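Onboarding guide, step 5: your first structure request.
Type a short instruction followed by the sequence, for example:

Predict the 3D structure of this protein.
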Amino acid sequence: ASEFVFEDLEHLKDKRIMFIAGGVGTAPVYPQVKWLSQRGIKADVIIGCKSKDYLILEEEMKEVAGNLYVATDDGSYGYKGLVTNLLKELVEKEGNHYDVVIAIGPMIMMKFVSMLTKELGIHTIVSLNPIMVDGTGMCGACRVTVGDETKFACVDGPEFDGHLVNFDEAMRRQTMYKTEEAKEEYRKKEQAEGGCRCGGGM
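The system replies with structure tokens like these:
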């Protein structure tokens, strides 16, 4: 659950909250929105996905959210375009005010949401679950720079101030580890098939 669990509920009731869920990020967003709803706090939600076929938990989310907005890349359902463009329209054209935005989804989405909310002056929390590997802080895969400090998403987070996260560094590390994992998988496969043919075998 989010850091809201620890906040004073009365204080929260005065805040306008927007959750932005990208793709599979919809799954972890739902219980948080439901938890708030059960306590009389209706948060708004934007779900972003490639197309209507990828949309999950729409009906469930409708029941617990204040307003639910759906953005699809191909325009097959809801708003056609990126979640950032939709948020910008809601704030600048519709005149919606938000005190806090919580973004959970692909790193690139959280990066651009954070860039926009910084411009709009909205406090933003991002969840860096996507870069976690072992959850102990030992492997270093989820090391991230937040402000000028080195943090580990699994032990210090996974929630951080989106305006302080160095997303480019985090995404580079994510790619690097994916490459290492791919190499390791390849090596295991080669060994299983009767020895390594990559030139590095003993």
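Each response can be followed by summary notes, for example: The chain has seven helices and nine strands.
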